[in-house]
Amino acid sequence: MLTHAKQRLKNPIMHAWIADRTKTFDSSGIRKVFDLAAKLTDPINLSIGQPDFDVPVEIQDAAIAAIRGGKNAYSPTQGIAPLREALRAQIDAQYSHADRDVFVSSGTSGGLMLAMMAMVNPGDEVIFLDPYFVMYPALLKMCGGVPVAVDSYPDFQLDPDKIAAAITPKTKMILVNSPANPTGVSATAEQLEAVAKLAAKHEIALVSDEIYSRFQYDAPFVSPASFNDQTIVIDGFSKSHAMTGWRVGYVHGPSEIMATMLKIQQYSFVCSPQPSQWGALRAMDIDLQSYIDDYRVKRDMIAEGLSGRYEFTLPGGAFYLFAKAPGGMGGEAFVKRAIERGLLIIPGNIFSDRDTHFRISFAASNETLKKGIKMLQDLHDELT
């Protein structure tokens, strides 16, 4: 039997102590793009998936007051009472479900991990759309789940018939993200209702990732929880209030599921940072309409600038546009060409089994967007 030291010599690439589960997924490809761009001195950055505005001052002040007021210890695992009460009032007003509890998670990413750990057994299948948020398959593989990515090209719509066709006796969960990362596409109320009823019919867990729910440009936001009272909803303050580093999300759904997720949080994340939670409480009173209006302008600006040159579906929400690389070029090759010119965008194969598209984030200043649009126009004209 080989010792750990001999195993390391035999396979120097992989340390002998590293768990097998880590071999089932790679590091985020987004980080690799950043490595490629590390030598750029003044890039046109349309890659970052976070708002370009700062945390509103009122929220900053609330967190500072909490810190100076001695609110620096652990909070209850479920979150500070005032924030939970405010969230509960908002959720009850929206849904009026007989059995719907809420707790504060360590960001929406933490909420997603807790949901997978609480509900997915090894071998269970989880359905979601391709393209997908990079974390979905990795989280599922960590807990032994089987990702089932349903192709949504070319228009990236939530097709209930495709979801139904993917259901097997091993299906445990359907994971919906609307508005979506990386496409920015918003599902219609009819699509969400059909998928919600499909999950209920087959007694499948329905998880709705709603982190971009406030970035909705052309129609009111609709949650599948409106049509299925067993839906587990994951949301937070990271994108809407530019609080990506504060780690405050929240999850609501059937009380027994919430209690199980809390049990796991107790032994993992413990709680969301307490000062951040006091900031989030203040955030609930902030009017975001001016920010949403600004992002609608940005969406329209980049859509108009790329129209006629690139194939894409107009994003109805979030702050992403997912475009097809021109001239038959693969998405990764196109992105490398763009980075060589000083434009940072993300190849679509990071979010997909296909390598045909690239993701643009229009969470940038209007000046940066104009430069990026001009660069993309020039690249298209050179390649076609």
From TrEMBL:
Keyword Zinc found: no
CDD domains in UniProt: AAT_like
Protein's UniProt keywords contain Transferase: yes
Gene Ontology biological-process entries: amino acid metabolic process
Entry keyword set: Aminotransferase, Pyridoxal phosphate, Transferase
Gene Ontology MF, one: transaminase activity
Cofactor names: pyridoxal 5'-phosphate
Record-annotated Aminotransferase class I/classII large domain positions: 42-374
Matches recorded under Gene3D superfamilies: Type I PLP-dependent aspartate aminotransferase-like (Major domain)
EC id: 2.6.1.-
Domain of life of the source: Bacteria
Family to which this protein belongs: Belongs to the class-I pyridoxal-phosphate-dependent aminotransferase family.
The protein's name: Aminotransferase
Organism: Stieleria varia
